Amino acid sequence: MIAPANAPPRLTAESLTRSFEGRRVVDDVSFSVPAGQVACLLGPSGCGKSTTLRLIAGVDMQDSGRILVDGKLVCDTTFRVPPERRAIGLMFQDFALFPHLSVAENVAFGLTGGYAANRARVDELLERVRMTAHLGSYPHALSGGEQQRIALARALAPRPRIMLMDEPFSGLDERLRDGIRDETLALMKEEGTAVLLVTHEPEEAMRMADQILLMRDGRIVQQGAPYNLYNAPADREAAAFFSDINVLRGRVQGALTDTPFGEFLTPGVPDGTEVEIVIRPQHLKIDFDRAGMGPAATPENGTAAHASVVRSRFLGRESLVEFVTDEGGIALNANVPGVFLPPAGTRMWLMLRRDRVFVFPR
Questions:
Q1: Can you give the pLDDT at residue 295?
Q2: Residue pLDDT, tens place only, 177-205
């Protein structure tokens, strides 16, 4: 189900704030989610993700700001549509199925139509989540993955315009999680539902989201498509949230910063400013120290730095090699595909791709 091109966003949050005991837990949060799109509120525990979700759901009240659904106001500081009238569905880690109701009764619980219309909707959704054979079963007889499917069907039954999901897949077995997660989101996209999902796992957000809202200390520090957040992080902390990083530190002189890998251009940064140069382990390339080899600069690899292996470990799909540089004694990690386990003390050259480096003021 595709919304008209000129339709307002299905969900809009404008300058939401919420404080508890003098501490601002949600701080000037703004974003929008179009129909049929998935937005992930991503961040560490305690950053304000779940509180933001509660404000949208209507179970808590913001101190300031507005919430709109399809361009219509549902809540500000003086006007408030009750939660049950917001056309918003909820899914949480605890599926909260009613143990005394059958599968069909659980799915039908929030429906308000006649018997025939309700039964048709229940049958439709159970077929779509492949649970028709269990319509007379009770929750205790279902596996975790089957309970997840019933919870999804129940949440979708009233045709919510927005679905709020708080870590809904974290309780599932890892072998089931990817498949159920993908099926769930595909079904909601087909229904034209806007999804706002909370997670603290970057890989999950990257896999699921059309847009990521990266939160820290109650604020959205960066938002956009997963590709953009990964490849153009707003700061060092944003880069580190999506992957391990190596950090080189230096001081700017004449728009240049000197490092064991040579000088880096830092235009527009005042002289004397301390900067951090961030490189991900997978972008650090290595080569054996051969007699007479020097750290020659190349357009592809930049300038090489001499280092010694501290430790190497095989992680399954790749190997992690830990180094310390000759110059400055800087600890650096490199990820190498496959099995690569040089012994401690092995002398090697490290090279990095300058087009994959991020420079941030410290």
A1: 42
A2: 777 778 888 888 888 899 999 999 999 89
- CB-count exposure of residue 155 (10 Å: 0-12, 13-18, 19+): buried
**Tokens representing residue 145 in the block:** 């993955």
Average per-residue pLDDT in the chain?
89
Q: How far is CA 259 from CA 237, 269, 274, in A?
A: 21, 16, 12
Question: What is the rounded CA–CA span in Å between residue 111 and residue 67?
Answer: 25
Range of the domain at 181: 11-237
Residue 199 carries which side chain, given as an amino acid letter?
T
Q: Enter the DSSP assignment of 269.
A: P
Its pTM stands at 0.85
Backbone dihedral angles phi then psi of residue 152, each to the nearest 5 degrees = -65, -45
Of 237, 262, 286, the last residue of a domain is 237
Return the residue matching tokens 């728009």: 255
If asked whether residues 130 and 272 sit together in one domain, one would say: no
Tell me whether residue 4 is in a domain. no
Cα 18 from Cα 28, distance rounded (Å): 9
Q: Which two tokens stand for residue 286?
A: 């290595």
| Contact predicate 143/70, CB 8 Å | no
Which pLDDT value is given to residue 291?
40
Q: What confidence score (pLDDT) does residue 315 get?
A: 93
- Higher-confidence residue of 250 and 354: namely 250
Question: How far are the Cα atoms of 27, 79, 135, 152 from residue 139, in angstroms, in the given order?
Answer: 39, 39, 10, 13
Q: Give 145's contacts (C-beta < 8 A, 6+ positions apart).
A: 172, 173, 176, 180
2 falls within a domain: no
Least confident of 3-17, 73-87, 316-330, 335-349: 3-17
Q: Give rounded-to-5 percent helix, strand, coil for the chain.
A: 25, 35, 40
Identify the pLDDT of residue 43: 95
What is the C-alpha to C-alpha distance for residues 279 and 240, in angstroms, rounded to an integer?
10
- Single-letter amino acid code for the residue at 258: D
